[in-house]
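Model: Ready when you are.
Researcher: Fold this.
Model:
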Amino acid sequence: MKIDKKIIAAILSVTVIASTVSASAFAAAATTAATATTTTSAAGTPPTKPAGDTGTAPSGTPPTGMPGGTAYTDVSSSAWYAQYVNYVSMKGVMTGSGSTFSPNAKITRAAFIEALYKAAGSPDVTGTSSYADVTSSAEYYKAVCWAEENGITTGTGNGNFSPNAYLTREMAMTFIYRAISALKLTSQTAAGTELSAYTDGGSVS
């Protein structure tokens, strides 16, 4: 199943952007993304710090050009994901195009790796990419190099990364899990619900 921008905004808000990540916070992000409907964020005010984020929450008036709940014309302040969209935008991790964020737009592998890279603080990159379909002139080049160096992505086979392929839920969880490990944010000890509890758990590769 392909995953859209608002889901990624919510998950990144409570995982990699946070200075400390817990298994429960990660699970809460997935639950929120699937079920929450009432979370609000007032226009022009900084969002509530997402659950699981023990770092410094944004404060004061959002910088010029950064949304405050309803600055994006297609993100209602009553939408469950409004505070997360605001949060990742203020952090410079994800942005829209002009006055729109396109919350329901699907996200590509390259766009997600770039967001993940920014969420990690845009670390220095010393190596180069080995992928035949990732050119050094691409805006996501450093992000892919970083992800490859740290074992976050291993490509899609035949020496390719497939930057323009749409991201799936399985890919997103795999990338974030590996990133959390690479950044030494938390233990990889599994906790909570096993895949066998889901009717489609057997389809996870």
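Researcher: Now this one.
Model:
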Amino acid sequence: MILIGTSEEIKLDKGIYFGNLNIDTFNTYSDRYLPVNNQEKVGLYDIQEKKLIIDYNYENIELVNATDNLLVVKRNSKEALINLKLKKLIDYKYNYIDYNDGYVIVGKDNKIGILNNEYKTIIDTSIPCTYGMFNIIIDSYKIGDNIVVSITDINGEEKYNTYIVNVKDNTVNNIKEEFIIQEEFSYTVSEDNKKYTIYDNNLVK
């Protein structure tokens, strides 16, 4: 098998398999570290050292930051953010962690919240996901002092919910419309496609 992004053929010991459990394909942000499994649990393999560096203790491992080597790991259906030394930066209290440059989206009990780059709470888990965490697509964008969280229901007819979170004053503005970002401006589209609202790069109408 060829690791994505490299031309090196990787040979693993017998009984070690590429990727996370129940996933046939995988992507990695690193050409050094690779999730592997023993068909029961998932660990992390160091390609340069040719050895397992994190033991088979997890249901899933995702490398989310190759610069700082940060990992989102899952255990007992809860996710945590750790580094290669197994230091917990975000503890196992969320069902969902989406690491981004400068902020983290977290979710539990069908609600999402936002942490800053020091993993402190900007908005607690109070933004509702009406259709459940796993029946939606969550996209997020940093625009000026704002984080735009766009939630799309995929459990049937598409429905949109957009939250504009101002990280300076911790306010949340809910727009029940599709939010579309362009290079010089952004806009929302009403459900009947008849109304458009234009925003500048500071999200001012």
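Researcher: Key takeaway?
Model: The chain has a mean pLDDT of 80.
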